[in-house]
Amino acid sequence: MAKKNRNESKKAQRKENLKNKKKARTRNISIGMVLILIVTAGFIMSANGDADLPEARGGEKRPTLAPRLFPGNVARAYEVAREIPEILDKIYCYCECQENIGHKSLLTCFVDRHGSRCGICLNEALIAYDLYKKGDPVEDIVKKVQSTMASGSRG
Protein backbone atom coordinates (compact mmCIF):
# COMPACT_ATOMS: atom_id res chain seq x y z
CA MET A 1 0.00 0.00 0.00
CA ALA A 2 2.86 2.36 0.86
CA LYS A 3 4.47 1.58 -2.50
CA LYS A 4 1.22 2.44 -4.29
CA ASN A 5 0.98 5.76 -2.45
CA ARG A 6 4.59 6.61 -3.37
CA ASN A 7 3.90 5.84 -7.03
CA GLU A 8 0.77 7.96 -7.01
CA SER A 9 2.68 10.72 -5.25
CA LYS A 10 5.43 10.59 -7.88
CA LYS A 11 2.84 10.67 -10.68
CA ALA A 12 1.13 13.65 -9.09
CA GLN A 13 4.48 15.40 -8.69
CA ARG A 14 5.41 14.74 -12.35
CA LYS A 15 2.01 16.03 -13.43
CA GLU A 16 2.52 19.17 -11.32
CA ASN A 17 6.04 19.66 -12.73
CA LEU A 18 4.71 19.30 -16.26
CA LYS A 19 1.96 21.83 -15.52
CA ASN A 20 4.54 24.27 -14.07
CA LYS A 21 6.79 23.84 -17.12
CA LYS A 22 3.87 24.62 -19.43
CA LYS A 23 3.02 27.73 -17.39
CA ALA A 24 6.67 28.84 -17.48
CA ARG A 25 6.86 28.26 -21.25
CA THR A 26 3.65 30.22 -21.80
CA ARG A 27 4.95 33.05 -19.58
CA ASN A 28 8.29 33.13 -21.42
CA ILE A 29 6.56 33.21 -24.81
CA SER A 30 4.34 36.05 -23.61
CA ILE A 31 7.32 38.02 -22.31
CA GLY A 32 9.15 37.43 -25.58
CA MET A 33 6.20 38.68 -27.60
CA VAL A 34 5.90 41.80 -25.46
CA LEU A 35 9.63 42.50 -25.91
CA ILE A 36 9.33 42.07 -29.67
CA LEU A 37 6.42 44.52 -29.72
CA ILE A 38 8.36 47.05 -27.66
CA VAL A 39 11.43 46.81 -29.88
CA THR A 40 9.31 47.05 -33.04
CA ALA A 41 7.50 50.10 -31.69
CA GLY A 42 10.86 51.67 -30.88
CA PHE A 43 12.11 51.15 -34.42
CA ILE A 44 8.94 52.58 -35.87
CA MET A 45 9.10 55.61 -33.60
CA SER A 46 12.78 56.25 -34.35
CA ALA A 47 12.17 55.91 -38.08
CA ASN A 48 9.35 58.44 -37.86
CA GLY A 49 11.15 60.65 -35.35
CA ASP A 50 12.71 62.86 -38.00
CA ALA A 51 9.39 63.32 -39.77
CA ASP A 52 8.28 65.86 -37.20
CA LEU A 53 11.36 68.06 -37.58
CA PRO A 54 10.90 71.16 -39.72
CA GLU A 55 13.00 71.47 -42.85
CA ALA A 56 14.95 74.42 -44.19
CA ARG A 57 13.91 75.59 -47.64
CA GLY A 58 17.56 76.17 -48.52
CA GLY A 59 18.90 77.83 -51.64
CA GLU A 60 20.49 80.89 -49.99
CA LYS A 61 22.88 82.46 -52.52
CA ARG A 62 23.74 85.80 -50.90
CA PRO A 63 27.13 86.19 -49.22
CA THR A 64 27.38 86.28 -45.45
CA LEU A 65 28.51 89.42 -43.64
CA ALA A 66 32.18 89.75 -42.73
CA PRO A 67 33.07 88.27 -39.33
CA ARG A 68 35.32 91.29 -38.61
CA LEU A 69 32.17 93.36 -38.15
CA PHE A 70 31.36 91.50 -34.93
CA PRO A 71 33.00 90.65 -31.60
CA GLY A 72 33.67 87.27 -29.91
CA ASN A 73 31.32 84.34 -30.47
CA VAL A 74 29.23 86.39 -32.89
CA ALA A 75 32.28 86.79 -35.14
CA ARG A 76 32.96 83.07 -34.72
CA ALA A 77 29.44 82.18 -35.89
CA TYR A 78 29.82 84.43 -38.96
CA GLU A 79 33.16 82.67 -39.70
CA VAL A 80 31.33 79.34 -39.45
CA ALA A 81 28.73 80.57 -41.93
CA ARG A 82 31.53 81.39 -44.37
CA GLU A 83 33.31 78.08 -43.81
CA ILE A 84 30.35 75.66 -44.03
CA PRO A 85 27.57 77.50 -45.90
CA GLU A 86 26.39 74.31 -47.64
CA ILE A 87 25.67 72.75 -44.24
CA LEU A 88 23.98 75.77 -42.65
CA ASP A 89 21.80 76.09 -45.75
CA LYS A 90 20.31 72.67 -44.97
CA ILE A 91 19.46 73.50 -41.34
CA TYR A 92 16.13 74.90 -40.21
CA CYS A 93 16.57 77.83 -37.81
CA TYR A 94 14.70 77.34 -34.56
CA CYS A 95 14.19 81.05 -33.91
CA GLU A 96 11.50 80.56 -36.59
CA CYS A 97 12.85 83.29 -38.84
CA GLN A 98 11.81 81.15 -41.82
CA GLU A 99 8.17 81.64 -40.88
CA ASN A 100 8.45 85.14 -39.42
CA ILE A 101 10.81 87.00 -41.74
CA GLY A 102 11.12 84.73 -44.77
CA HIS A 103 14.57 83.23 -44.22
CA LYS A 104 15.45 80.18 -46.30
CA SER A 105 17.67 78.43 -43.74
CA LEU A 106 20.09 79.01 -40.88
CA LEU A 107 22.56 80.38 -43.44
CA THR A 108 20.19 83.26 -44.22
CA CYS A 109 20.58 84.47 -40.62
CA PHE A 110 24.20 85.36 -41.43
CA VAL A 111 23.65 87.30 -44.68
CA ASP A 112 22.43 90.19 -42.53
CA ARG A 113 22.71 91.22 -38.88
CA HIS A 114 19.91 88.93 -37.70
CA GLY A 115 22.38 86.23 -36.63
CA SER A 116 24.34 88.72 -34.51
CA ARG A 117 21.31 89.43 -32.32
CA CYS A 118 19.92 85.93 -31.95
CA GLY A 119 21.34 83.40 -29.51
CA ILE A 120 19.43 80.59 -31.18
CA CYS A 121 21.04 81.23 -34.56
CA LEU A 122 24.49 81.56 -33.00
CA ASN A 123 24.07 78.36 -30.99
CA GLU A 124 22.87 76.34 -33.97
CA ALA A 125 25.77 77.49 -36.14
CA LEU A 126 28.36 76.68 -33.47
CA ILE A 127 26.83 73.24 -32.78
CA ALA A 128 26.90 72.48 -36.51
CA TYR A 129 30.54 73.54 -36.73
CA ASP A 130 31.58 71.38 -33.77
CA LEU A 131 29.96 68.36 -35.43
CA TYR A 132 31.60 69.25 -38.75
CA LYS A 133 35.02 69.42 -37.08
CA LYS A 134 34.42 65.99 -35.52
CA GLY A 135 33.95 64.63 -39.04
CA ASP A 136 30.21 63.92 -38.91
CA PRO A 137 28.57 63.55 -42.34
CA VAL A 138 26.39 66.46 -43.43
CA GLU A 139 23.15 64.50 -43.08
CA ASP A 140 24.06 63.56 -39.49
CA ILE A 141 25.01 67.15 -38.65
CA VAL A 142 21.64 68.39 -39.86
CA LYS A 143 19.76 65.71 -37.90
CA LYS A 144 21.76 66.23 -34.69
CA VAL A 145 21.39 70.02 -34.76
CA GLN A 146 17.68 69.69 -35.49
CA SER A 147 17.05 67.17 -32.72
CA THR A 148 19.15 69.15 -30.22
CA MET A 149 17.22 72.33 -30.95
CA ALA A 150 13.86 70.55 -31.09
CA SER A 151 14.48 69.12 -27.63
CA GLY A 152 14.78 72.63 -26.21
CA SER A 153 18.57 73.17 -26.05
CA ARG A 154 18.33 76.50 -27.80
CA GLY A 155 21.05 78.53 -26.11
Explain the overall architecture.
- The model is unreliable at about 40-50 (pLDDT under 50).
- With about 160 residues, the chain is mostly helical.
- The radius of gyration is 30 Å and the shape is rod-shaped.
- The longest helix has about 50 residues, at about 1-50.
- Helix 2 crosses helix 5 (about 120-135) and helix 5 (about 120-135) runs antiparallel to helix 6 (about 140-150).
- The chain has 2 domains: about 1-50; about 65-150, no CATH class.
- The N and C termini lie far apart (about 85 Å).
- The chain has helices spanning about 1-50, 70-85, 85-90, 95-100, 120-135, 140-150.
What's the average pLDDT? 80
* Biggest pleated-sheet summary: none
How far apart, in Å, are the first and last alpha carbons? 85 Å
DSSP helix count?
6
Hey, roughly how much beta strand do the residues contain?
Answer: under 5%
Rg from Cα: 30 Å
Task: Indicate the overall shape.
Answer: rod-shaped
Q: Name the assembly state.
A: single chain
- Portion in helices: 55-70%
Task: Give the tally of structural domains.
Answer: 2
Structural key phrases:
single chain; 155 residues; mainly alpha; 6 helices; 63% helix
Provide a brief overview of the structure.
The chain has 155 residues and is mainly α.
Helix/strand layout:
Elements: H1 2-49, H2 72-83, H3 85-88, H4 97-101, H5 119-133, H6 138-150
